[in-house]
Amino acid sequence: MKADTVGTITPAILVTLNPGERILTPHGLMLYKEPNVKLNRKTLKSLGVGMSDLMAYSAMGAKEEEYFLVEFEGPGNVTLSRDKGGEARILPLAPGQTVQVAQGHLVGLEPTVRYSPVLVARYQNPLNPNEVQMLWADRLTGPGTIILQGHGNVLSFNLQPGESMRTSVPAFLLASQTVGIQVQTQFPPNPTGIVTRPLTQAYLFGPGTVMLQSGT
User: Fold this and answer.
1) I want to staple 76 with a disulfide (CB 3.0 to 4.6 A). Which of 1, 37, 121, 151 is the partner?
2) What CATH architecture does domain 2-213 belong to?
C-alpha cells in the first residue's frame, strides 16, 4: 500500500493499492475510488474488538456506523479525506508499537494494524457536575501504516521519563501507549473575586510521543 498527501488547506490522502492489498477506514471518508477497487464492510467484532469494549462503546451512545469500518481492496486508487482543514500524517507502526489517536481523526489503517476503541479519560462537565464527559480514542497496534488528520497544525513532542505537559482536551491528537493521560478541572484564581470559568485540561506524562493539533 502506498499513501500520499494531496492538497494543503483541506488535505486528502491518495491510496494506491496493489492486487490483494487492503485499507480500512471509518465511514464517510471516501472521495473517489476506481471501479476495480472492491468495497466491503467489516464489523469491529470481526476485527477482534472485545465484547467489553463494544458494550462500553454502546454506553457512550455510539452511532450504528461506528461499529463498522470500510474495507477497500485493490488493485486501484482510493482518495480519502475528512473534508476539514488541517494536516494529515502517514505513520508507520513497528510490531507491537501502540498509539492512541483521538476519536474522529483516524483516516485509515492497514489490516495488519490491530484496532480497538478505548476510553482514555472520564471527567465531569465543569459547567454541569451531573454530566460525565468522556475522552475516547482509537487504539492502534502495529505492524502497519496508519493515517490520521489533525485540525490546524500538527505539533509533535517526545516526552522523556518524568517529563509532562498539559493542553486543552480538544488539542489532544495522539499519544504513545506509554504516555499517561489525566483530565483535570481547575478554577483559576481571580483577584477581583468574580467567579472564573473553570479550565479543563489534559495532563500528559512521559515517556513517549505526543501529537497536538492547533485548530481546536
Assistant:
1) 37
2) 4-Layer Sandwich (3.60)
